[in-house]
Each structure stands twice: as C-alpha cells, then as structure tokens.
User: Which sequence fits this backbone?
C-alpha cells in the first residue's frame, strides 16, 4: 500500500512506476494533480486506485494499463470524458466518477463484465450507452443529481435486480 493523499502534490515522479510489486492500494486523493506519469501503467498488479479530489480534466491514460484494478475512484475532478481504453480494465468491480463533467460514457464500458457498481452522481450526463444494460453483474447504478431522461433500457436493468438511484 502507498498513501500519498492529502499532500497538495502537483506531480509524481516517473520512478513511482517502478513499484511493480504494489498490489493493494494506491491513494493519490486530495492533492492538486492534473496528470499521472505514463510509467504508472507498469502497476499491473494494483487492485485499488483513488485519484479523487484532484484537478484532472483529462483521463490519465496510464490507468488503462492497470489491468488488475478492482476498484477505481476518480470522484471530484473535472473529467469531461472517459477513454475507450477504460474497457481494458476487465476486472473492475467498482467505478466511482461522481462530481466530474462527464456528458456520456464510452461504449467500451460494456467490456467491464465484472462491474457491480457505477457511481455517476453529479455529472452533466446527456447519454448513457445501452451496453450498461448488458453488464451481467451490475447491481448498483447511481444517477442522483443527474438531469437526464432515463433511457428505455433502464427498466430492464431494474427488473433484473439492479438498484438504480435517480
């Protein structure tokens, strides 16, 4: 585990990517980060990443290399989109992107077959991909404080037991 949270950091050294044995947690929350070193893609065994409460407006591409991630928290940033490469995080069970500037999600979200929870609260979403309805293990979709009409497929999601907060 490595906790670098609450330090007003504005950058991280490339050498952080050399910690390839880091498996459990990397806390980078509550700093002033706007980017992550590309070397962090080497953290392929990492299971939990928290980059919440920073200043990201562009998704750090190095996250897409962290293929063992089970939980990813990127709340309270300024992200305007998620890349298609997020579909590479096939072990992901929880995705928390509350309070960003997301207007939609990529279709590649459908590749996250282990996903159980998606927290989208407080984003200015205008569209959600139908691929979300096909996620077999999804049991919680949080859309509170999102002013978007419910997609037609949302009823099917709720009918199969997924709790949708609106």
Assistant:
């Amino acid at each position: 585990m490595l906790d670098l949270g609450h330090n007003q950091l504005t950058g991280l050294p490339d050498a952080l990517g050399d910690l390839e044995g880091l498996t459990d947690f990397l806390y980078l929350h509550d700093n002033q980060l706007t980017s992550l070193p590309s070397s962090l893609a080497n953290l392929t065994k990492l299971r939990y990443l928290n980059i919440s409460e920073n200043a990201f407006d562009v998704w750090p591409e190095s996250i897409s290399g962290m293929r063992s991630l089970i939980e990813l928290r990127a709340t309270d940033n300024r992200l305007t989109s998620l890349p298609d490469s997020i579909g590479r995080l096939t072990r992901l069970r929880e995705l928390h992107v509350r309070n960003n500037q997301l207007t939609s999600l990529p279709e590649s979200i459908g590749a996250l077959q282990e996903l159980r929870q998606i927290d989208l609260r407080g984003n200015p979403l205008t569209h959600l991909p139908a691929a979300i309805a096909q996620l077999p293990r999804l049991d919680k979709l949080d859309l509170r404080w999102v002013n978007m009409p419910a997609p037609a497929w949302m009823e099917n999601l709720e009918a199969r037991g997924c709790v949708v907060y609106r």
In short: Strands lie at 2-3, 25-27, 48-50, 71-73, 94-96, 117-119, 140-142, 163-165. The longest helix spans residues 154-159. Helices lie at 154-159. The chain has two domains: 1-62, 80-166.
